[in-house]
Specification:
The chain is mainly alpha-helical. It has one domain: Rossmann fold (3-Layer(aba) Sandwich), CATH 3.40.50. The chain is built from twelve helices and five strands. Strands 1-3-2-4-5 form a five-stranded parallel beta sheet, sandwiched between helices. Strand 4, helix 6 and strand 5 form a beta-alpha-beta unit. It is globular and about 55 Å long. Bound molecules: zinc ion. Zinc ion (ZN) binds next to helix 4.
Length: 328
């Protein structure tokens, strides 16, 4: 039954994927068509079709990221779009190169942030993010999935920690079933996990350090996905600056964001850098997921390096009484 459905949706799916800008993706898709697998959106299947899936050979992806202000040139869904792009990119490689069958769930716009005062952000407490992630994973484990990948495409450590804590909890209770590899990606330098940084990205990083939010990194990533999503005036936006160690101060972050809401230099963004960045993240996910599925040497990908700091877990135990926002 599954194979019949694959046949029917091949054409439609490959057109969708071909809109991705990377030429390499096109080659993968053509290869993919020969093989018969194509990633499936889980919520479009019936319960019976899901029950028939070979859970030993399948991987399920779900993105958890916020609807959040990303400066004046990027959409609120920037992190969700990134999560979706990186997941699809990784799923194509996992199906094509490794023979796994991949599924993905609708994105969950539930995420936590250390600074949520800026206008246009929908953030949740760490406790809420933890609870949603834990209960979501429990449901998916009851479907029978053994390899669940949470793509937490929002770099804030408090979000990473809330998701990783939920994973730790379910893995301890049900046996190892889930991983969230992006905490390790965002702190790969500190964790000493080496991965190839494309030359044009490292050059850009040297020239424009301290790019944390809606700067050249994210603007480039979105340009590579769909140029139409980036407002045309982005090259005129002034750089805002803050150093990494100042990022622990909410006051300093908000001051640096000013009237614009970004931290970094969006004006220098370009599509080529974005393509390289999107590819780099997907490759990292593939590397972590393959090790996770094989259950060998995967533990280094399980946590952000700040996970070990107990004070950063405090938000998991408190409920915010009121949400404070800047109004317009
Ligand atoms: Zn973002």
């Amino acid at each position: 039954m599954l194979l019949e459905r694959h046949e029917a949706k091949r054409e439609k799916c490959s057109i969708l994927v071909l809109t991705w800008p990377l030429r390499a993706r096109c080659i993968l898709v053509l290869e993919q068509r020969k093989r018969g697998y194509l990633m499936e959106k889980l919520s479009l299947l019936t319960w019976k079709e899901i029950a028939e899936v070979d859970k030993d050979k399948s991987i399920l992806f779900v993105t958890m990221a916020p609807i959040e202000a990303h400066g004046i040139s990027l959409p609120l869904a920037t992190d969700l779009l990134e999560g979706e792009c990186w997941s699809k990119n990784a799923m194509l490689q996992l199906e094509h190169q490794k023979g796994y069958q991949c599924f993905y769930l609708n994105e969950f716009p539930i995420a936590s942030a250390s600074v949520s005062d800026f206008y246009g952000c929908i953030h949740f407490s760490m406790k809420t993010t933890f609870t949603v992630a834990k209960e979501l994973l429990e449901n998916l484990i009851h479907f029978g999935f053994k390899n669940i990948v949470v793509v937490a495409s929002h770099a804030d450590p408090v979000h990473q920690i809330a998701v990783e804590k939920a994973i730790e909890k379910v893995n301890r209770h049900y046996g190892v079933r889930a991983i969230s590899p992006l905490g390790a990606f965002f702190s790969s330098k500190e964790l000493k996990i080496t991965h190839d940084l494309p030359e044009l990205v490292s050059e850009m990083e040297n020239k424009n350090p301290n790019d944390f939010h809606a700067g050249w990194i994210e603007t480039s990533c979105i340009l590579a996905m769909d140029e139409k999503l980036v407002r045309t005036g982005f090259k005129q936006i002034p750089m805002t600056s803050i150093r990494e160690k100042e990022m622990i101060s909410k006051k300093k972050m908000l001051r640096a964001m000013g009237e614009y809401g970004h931290l970094g230099n969006p004006a220098v963004a370009n599509k080529e850098v974005g393509e390289a960045l999107n590819q780099e993240v997907a490759d990292f996910i593939v590397e972590a997921v393959v090790k996770f599925v094989e259950r060998t040497e995967y533990k280094k990908y399980m946590h952000h390096y700040l996970y070990r700091i107990p004070t950063l877990h405090i938000g998991l135990f408190i409920n915010k009484r009121w949400i404070r926002k800047r109004r317009r």
